[in-house]
């Protein structure tokens, strides 16, 4: 039996502008800015040759039907030689799902890396990242998350598309700056991206990103994310209360993870625990993560 394991950071988006007109899934995506989190997705793939090809998936220990994994399996299997495989994929996710924390993109990228290694598929890192991006587009689970997870850090996606088609830059930050997450509940991403006024939201995202590109600092990043959250209409009452509470508790700044009912705050180590407690006091599932400056990788 062959076994491979891969890790990908989770990744939150603080502002975005969709780019969905092209037919080519490699050219679809989003511009925006966000943060890669050290807490992320760990994927283990076990594969053995078989007379009949089969795929079995588990998510956080429970058997699951994962359409994204099926898409990736079909794509990567074509590059793994003419033989059958029995494959088991086990995904473990360290952050809440459905909260705008990029879990589908993280799982897609880590799964692609582990599948290729276990199956012996002759594919490069960027080829696999592009397949993870395309699978997310086709499954409707994300638009531009993979670009940030391939880069790591505090990311600006300046041109949309799959890795290799996109243009990504990063914002410098102190190594002791942490991300505090307060998850109140999931938001249906498909519904959120089918708003009648999405063009207005996209314009707001472009305006914020343009200002951030001119002033690529941590302070400008969290300020533009908050500006976007306030004007986009995605922030619930609980999110607005969470942002205010995090700032009162000493955060450098706070905003909403797109698209989830989730607050994220940037805080230095001496303030992070107070910020976490403030969000927890409002009923959020709260956690603290470091910023992940490395990309998704085999482990």
Rough outline = globular
CATH topology of the largest domain: Ribosomal Protein S5, domain 2
Number of domains: 2
Query: Number of helical segments?
Result: 9
CA-CA gap between termini: 18 Å
At the first level of CATH, the class of the largest domain is Alpha Beta
Give me the Rg, rounded. Answer: 19 Å
Q: Report the major sheet.
A: 8 strands, mixed
Percent helix: 25-40%
By secondary-structure content and strand pairing, the structural class works out as alpha+beta
Strand content: 25-35%
Question: What would the average pLDDT be, to the nearest integer?
Answer: 95
Series of H and E elements: EEEEHEHHHEEEHHHHEEHEE
Provide the CATH architecture of the largest domain: 2-Layer Sandwich
């Amino acid at each position: 039996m062959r076994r491979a394991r891969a890790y990908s950071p989770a990744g939150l988006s603080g502002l975005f502008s969709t780019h969905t007109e092209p037919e080519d899934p490699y050219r679809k995506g989003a511009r925006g800015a966000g943060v890669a989190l050290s807490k992320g997705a760990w994927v283990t793939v076990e594969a053995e040759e078989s007379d009949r090809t089969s795929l079995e998936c588990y998510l956080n220990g429970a058997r699951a039907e994962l359409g994204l994994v099926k898409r990736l399996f079909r794509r990567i299997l074509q590059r793994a030689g003419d033989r059958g495989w029995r494959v088991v994929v086990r995904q473990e996710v360290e952050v809440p799902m459905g909260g705008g924390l990029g879990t589908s993109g993280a799982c897609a990228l880590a799964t692609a890396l582990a599948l290729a290694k276990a199956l012996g598929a002759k594919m490069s890192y960027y080829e696999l990242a592009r397949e993870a991006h395309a699978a997310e587009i086709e499954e409707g689970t994300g638009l531009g998350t993979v670009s940030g997870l391939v880069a790591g850090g505090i990311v600006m996606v300046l041109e949309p598309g799959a890795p290799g088609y996109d243009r990504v830059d990063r914002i410098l930050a102190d190594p002791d700056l942490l991300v505090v997450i307060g998850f109140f509940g999931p938001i249906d991403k498909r519904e959120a991206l089918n708003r009648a006024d999405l063009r207005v939201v996209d314009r707001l995202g472009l305006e914020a990103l343009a200002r951030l590109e001119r002033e690529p600092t941590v302070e400008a990043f969290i300020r533009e994310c908050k500006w976007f959250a306030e004007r986009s209409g995605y922030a619930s009452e609980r999110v607005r209360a969470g942002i205010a509470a995090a700032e009162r508790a000493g955060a450098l700044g706070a905003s909403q993870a797109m698209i989830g009912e989730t607050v994220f705050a940037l805080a230095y180590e001496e303030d992070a625990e107070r910020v976490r407690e403030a969000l927890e006091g409002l009923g959020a599932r709260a956690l603290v993560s470091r910023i992940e400056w490395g990309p998704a990788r085999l482990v």
